[in-house]
Amino acid sequence: MILVTGASGTLGGILVPMLAARGEQVRALSRRARDGAAGSCEWVVGDLNTGDGLDEAMAGVDVIVHAASNTRKQGKGDTAAAWHLIEAAKRGGRRPHLVYISIVGVDRHPLKYYRTKYEVEQAVEDSGLPYTILRTTQWFQLLDTFLRGAAKSPLLPVPSFPFQPLDAAEAAGRLAELAVGAPQGRAADLGGPELLPCGDLARTWLRATGKHRMLVPLRVPGKVGKAFRDGIHNTPDNRQGKATWAEYLAAAY
Known about the structure:
Blueprint: E1 2-5, H1 12-21, E2 26-30, E3 42-45, H2 54-57, E4 63-66, H3 78-91, E5 97-103, H4 112-125, E6 131-136, H5 140-150, E7 155-159, E8 162-163, H6 168-179, E9 185-186, E10 196-197, H7 198-209, E11 214-218, H8 222-229, H9 245-252
Helix pairs in contact: 1-6, 3-4, 7-9
InterPro entries: ComplexI_NDUFA9_subunit, NAD(P)-bd_dom, NAD(P)-bd_dom_sf
Protein name: NAD(P)H-binding protein
Domain NAD(P)-binding: 6-137
């Protein structure tokens, strides 16, 4: 049995039916009751923030894929949530394989959300459970969401650093492989096939969506800006992703 947290999120919404299609027994964790027919999985109610319902969710679980994160609040509460999950896993009397999805460069990047992701990585490593941590570069879907929000203004700010975007479906595919395999500790980083300047990302997105916006250079200050300009969030030696940004946009729009 594989328990997936964040099952209704961008990644989880792809991963759950993917695992089910492979014939795996999947249990999806949600804070609210949901229709169990979705994705041919069992939905269970549990709250990572309080720990409520986690003991019941752990019954018979062999693998946990931890994909939940408080992205809207820069990871607030994520470390405590991870420990609630770990403690419930241990109370269950089993030693499930804990698989965690993280971001390339979190151990060196000063961005608050990245630092929190690294704290969760450390919790996973210190859990005493067999584990695998997969770091990926930024997903197409999240960049798309960011650009939709930014394009509400007639001026579209464009930072001066590149991204190496990856399709979340490819991240989900790699997570599925790791979930059914032996624990690896730190798995090899997974990056998209292209390193693209933000200006190119934005112009391709505007063409695909048919929008017209003026691109305005944006310099991100301080240590965070320097880390992005230094490319800490990218992994040029790991371009295993196949889908390109233009291909994703063509399919999406």
